[in-house]
């Protein structure tokens, strides 16, 4: 194991005064030895729990998406006593269901040169060398098992005429390793995990708690031993105790208010754990997706993604002259159009990676060359301006070249969806697209066993930080969720549970009383403020601040301003919130209030993390760190580390722990797409 | 546009509900139906009246969480989910009646929110393939005829929203059930449990209090994912076959 890089030494300190430097962090469970043997050896070394003892062990899993649902199904089947929680009315509604594109796996069914090594390499490179190589290798290694498992469950993947599975390439990768079920792969995989979980519910090994929101983690005698939940129908505050707690609660992209996330996706489970001591790693790593349907007005509640596959045939342009922006695009002659991606990146053209396509679209609109209806943008300082936020994604050439029918066959469902949402016919006028927040790569810090720094608290799927670095490749999110749920957690959690069952605790334990009381007081506080503003209005304002200053492009000055604005917003929240209704009933305003304040606190930490990281990597573009051509410039010498933040206390600075990213199997290289 | 909304308000499962009338101004045709309700709720909150409770989550037509009777139609006048219905489907001055799903097995929780856990219980009763994690054969070990794979996919697109039940005069969940029976029963992996599955799922369907199917077809007409009525024939056929075998 010869390191290929030196530990980084940070010389800049943009966030001085906003944080405290803590002790370096080391993943004590990081495996060693040849990379292709690490996971196999670890699976063998991890202790077993005999079947009779498994029944005596209680496991709590929060979230029922691919990571949580798959883990509940697998651990239940193994014989543990599982309690599964979700805020939706059924586990089947978890937001994994909305993933469209596909799931990667190194099956090499196409014999086109794919392998575990290549999937590993592509993922580390795509993440701008900010993920852990051991974790990513394991992900690539188990990917093939995922496909087998899902097919056995009846997931209807696309097939060829010979009856074998079809593959396509995705996200700029040069091999065909993506398995898909039309544009609804996430739905089909989630239904597979959900059905496997319901089978365990029937078998009595899994108890499901729907419309239950986790509001606190219980840590007794140094171990996570349970959670406090609110029954969202009756308002009952309940405590649930266990030997181990798993958070599989998804990502926090809704910190921006407008995102492609489900409306209910929230950070509360992870953030409550963070406040209890769990480190939050790389919180500023956000993925912006370039092809979403633009915002139409301030009523907008969410953004809808158009599949990235459209960029294979569509051409992206804006008018050369700002005065043409209001015109019918069909009346703008060829010579007055700027196909800016083809112009700036002649070799990749419209297929440049997500971060680059997104940033250039923003640049065009910022220059005043955006298209579509001018929409009122409330600036974070309260002023308003009218902006056109859209660029054309034009299929006129594709229709001329392939014929309308061929375009319909390939993209028909996407065109229909676009027409439904916008009321425009994309076969006649070019579509309009704009980037939107899609996924977060940051999350709770975990070791190789997916355990947070709190003993007995595990975290999987999008809620943890470890596998995607600063930028997630297309079709890798589903892969990570299922890898964690079906194959990783069940093998690592048994090492922890081999020491269990832990000493029984009950409702009278001081840690349980403290956690429950804290939740009750917090809810009472929300209801008692009786101010003027709804939780949604605070959330929207937070989103505007985050998007403006901690979105696609970030500057030292902007981030400092954002931190001030967020602190003001937090102060106003606690004095001017208005929540009607009662605590002992279904109360959606109350639910939103709790989530919004957690987002506000997270938003502040995201800005501090972004301020500290004076480099551009992945979707995170620091204007102070760019090449002469305006491209993202990484600083491995300063920032090849995971930034794991410890909660410093109410109104105190967070504490930064750095975990060095040392590679042995891979060499860091600069990305270039010119 | 300006609208008059008649909305079912009901404090909880046991309370008596009633229609309430609201006027809403300045609705944009670009709003989704649910965004229109968001705007109404902001106004209600500002006036000190508790916002209308309704379910929604992904707001892109796939999670199946949203569902409203709009002017007596499940999900409203278009073949789509409520979150994908836009206000351009209405016109200035319209009066719109909004109610929760209507079916005994879907009791009202509050206002427009209903309890659809009966669907989960039907899945628990056989709506799966028993495949233990970690022991699956290679995915290419069992080829699947493309026609069957496509059919399985077409019906697996059911999002479990419950529109089929809400639209059915009998409150039958046969379309939901038929979709799952057809999905799993079309694939080689689903064959070993095909007979027990259909008997068990239909048993749970009836135990939940869903009505019988009388081939009216409102379910398929209301289904936002356009699950075809054929799946009910398939359901009935599989049930007869299983019963004839003595299951």
TrEMBL record, chain A:
<dbReference type="InterPro" id="IPR027477">
    <property type="entry name" value="Succ_DH/fumarate_Rdtase_cat_sf"/>
</dbReference>
<dbReference type="InterPro" id="IPR036188">
    <property type="entry name" value="FAD/NAD-bd_sf"/>
</dbReference>
<dbReference type="InterPro" id="IPR011280">
    <property type="entry name" value="Succ_DH/Fum_Rdt_flav_su"/>
</dbReference>
<dbReference type="InterPro" id="IPR003953">
    <property type="entry name" value="FAD-dep_OxRdtase_2_FAD-bd"/>
</dbReference>
<keyword id="KW-0560">Oxidoreductase</keyword>
<protein>
    <submittedName>
        <fullName>Fumarate reductase/succinate dehydrogenase flavoprotein subunit</fullName>
    </submittedName>
</protein>
<feature type="domain" description="FAD-dependent oxidoreductase 2 FAD-binding">
    <location>
        <begin position="58"/>
        <end position="478"/>
    </location>
</feature>
<dbReference type="Pfam" id="PF00890">
    <property type="entry name" value="FAD_binding_2"/>
</dbReference>
<dbReference type="InterPro" id="IPR015939">
    <property type="entry name" value="Fum_Rdtase/Succ_DH_flav-like_C"/>
</dbReference>
<dbReference type="InterPro" id="IPR037099">
    <property type="entry name" value="Fum_R/Succ_DH_flav-like_C_sf"/>
</dbReference>
<dbReference type="InterPro" id="IPR030664">
    <property type="entry name" value="SdhA/FrdA/AprA"/>
</dbReference>
<feature type="domain" description="Fumarate reductase/succinate dehydrogenase flavoprotein-like C-terminal">
    <location>
        <begin position="539"/>
        <end position="673"/>
    </location>
</feature>
<dbReference type="Pfam" id="PF02910">
    <property type="entry name" value="Succ_DH_flav_C"/>
</dbReference>
<keyword id="KW-0285">Flavoprotein</keyword>
From TrEMBL, chain B:
<keyword id="KW-0560">Oxidoreductase</keyword>
<keyword id="KW-0411">Iron-sulfur</keyword>
<dbReference type="InterPro" id="IPR017900">
    <property type="entry name" value="4Fe4S_Fe_S_CS"/>
</dbReference>
<keyword id="KW-0003">3Fe-4S</keyword>
<dbReference type="InterPro" id="IPR025192">
    <property type="entry name" value="Succ_DH/fum_Rdtase_N"/>
</dbReference>
<keyword id="KW-0816">Tricarboxylic acid cycle</keyword>
<feature type="domain" description="4Fe-4S ferredoxin-type">
    <location>
        <begin position="149"/>
        <end position="178"/>
    </location>
</feature>
<dbReference type="InterPro" id="IPR050573">
    <property type="entry name" value="SDH/FRD_Iron-Sulfur"/>
</dbReference>
<dbReference type="InterPro" id="IPR009051">
    <property type="entry name" value="Helical_ferredxn"/>
</dbReference>
<comment type="similarity">
    <text>Belongs to the succinate dehydrogenase/fumarate reductase iron-sulfur protein family.</text>
</comment>
<dbReference type="InterPro" id="IPR036010">
    <property type="entry name" value="2Fe-2S_ferredoxin-like_sf"/>
</dbReference>
<keyword id="KW-0001">2Fe-2S</keyword>
<keyword id="KW-0479">Metal-binding</keyword>
<protein>
    <recommendedName>
        <fullName>succinate dehydrogenase</fullName>
        <ecNumber>1.3.5.1</ecNumber>
    </recommendedName>
</protein>
<keyword id="KW-0004">4Fe-4S</keyword>
<dbReference type="InterPro" id="IPR006058">
    <property type="entry name" value="2Fe2S_fd_BS"/>
</dbReference>
<dbReference type="InterPro" id="IPR017896">
    <property type="entry name" value="4Fe4S_Fe-S-bd"/>
</dbReference>
<keyword id="KW-0408">Iron</keyword>
<dbReference type="Pfam" id="PF13237">
    <property type="entry name" value="Fer4_10"/>
</dbReference>
<dbReference type="InterPro" id="IPR012675">
    <property type="entry name" value="Beta-grasp_dom_sf"/>
</dbReference>
<dbReference type="InterPro" id="IPR004489">
    <property type="entry name" value="Succ_DH/fum_Rdtase_Fe-S"/>
</dbReference>
<dbReference type="Pfam" id="PF13085">
    <property type="entry name" value="Fer2_3"/>
</dbReference>
